[in-house]
UniProtKB/TrEMBL annotation:
<keyword id="KW-0472">Membrane</keyword>
<feature type="domain" description="SpoOB alpha-helical">
    <location>
        <begin position="48"/>
        <end position="107"/>
    </location>
</feature>
<feature type="transmembrane region" description="Helical">
    <location>
        <begin position="5"/>
        <end position="20"/>
    </location>
</feature>
<keyword id="KW-0812">Transmembrane</keyword>
<dbReference type="InterPro" id="IPR016120">
    <property type="entry name" value="Sig_transdc_His_kin_SpoOB"/>
</dbReference>
<keyword id="KW-0597">Phosphoprotein</keyword>
<keyword id="KW-1133">Transmembrane helix</keyword>
<keyword id="KW-0808">Transferase</keyword>
<dbReference type="InterPro" id="IPR039506">
    <property type="entry name" value="SPOB_a"/>
</dbReference>
<feature type="transmembrane region" description="Helical">
    <location>
        <begin position="26"/>
        <end position="43"/>
    </location>
</feature>
<dbReference type="Pfam" id="PF14689">
    <property type="entry name" value="SPOB_a"/>
</dbReference>
<protein>
    <recommendedName>
        <fullName>SpoOB alpha-helical domain-containing protein</fullName>
    </recommendedName>
</protein>
<dbReference type="GO" id="GO:0000155">
    <property type="term" value="F:phosphorelay sensor kinase activity"/>
</dbReference>
<keyword id="KW-0418">Kinase</keyword>
Amino acid sequence: MPRSSFYLIPPFLVLVVWWLTTWEHVWFVTIGIIFVLSMFFFIRARNREHKQQEAADTKRLLGKIRHDLMNHVQVLMGYHMMKQEDKGNEYLQRLAEHAAKEREIAELQDEELAVFLLTLSHHYPQWEWEVQKLPTYIEPRAKTNEPIAKWLAVCIRVLAKMGEEKYDWQKVVLQLSGDDQTNFFSFQVYNAENEIIPLHVPAGEWTNLKDQFKQLQMEIVSQQRLTLRTGLSR
């Protein structure tokens, strides 16, 4: 139980005592004062806990970024020491292309979605992630209240459940695309040889999964893609 919850105990105890003893106004005033003070300290403590959790998450994320950066530096230093400049240049080119893709995602108008996509490898480190934003994906002109990041997190849980004890994939590709009326977010999984793994799901199991998340428009396309339709009008 969060430590902030203990601030709710005093008003509860006073309320019980007041109820069991008397209905005098002095108790009413007392419980009112204690309730206000307790709620003040409770909210302050919850805000402090929330900030501490955010700081811890940010610290872990920065640690992962630093770790990845050091890995890249070591690879480049290795190519340099072995005088393999061609491979070093190819590696730098791949890093530049990856950075360009991340910049494109970071420029999405939906800040929550952008942060979610950029931190996929942090929140789901068991897989290698690649996010592809196709030219057909056009953002809504106005911000919407659709919790796309939350829906995508649900899709990832569904994907993980589908793969329990069935698949051994190494990489997940999340592709953003669309048409005139709908946005599509499609997941494809790959093995260590970079081959697409078909998503064979028994009909009954797939029905159960869809029943659990009826608010989402999910479908499996050609047994290769788990696709989320957001139905956002352009």
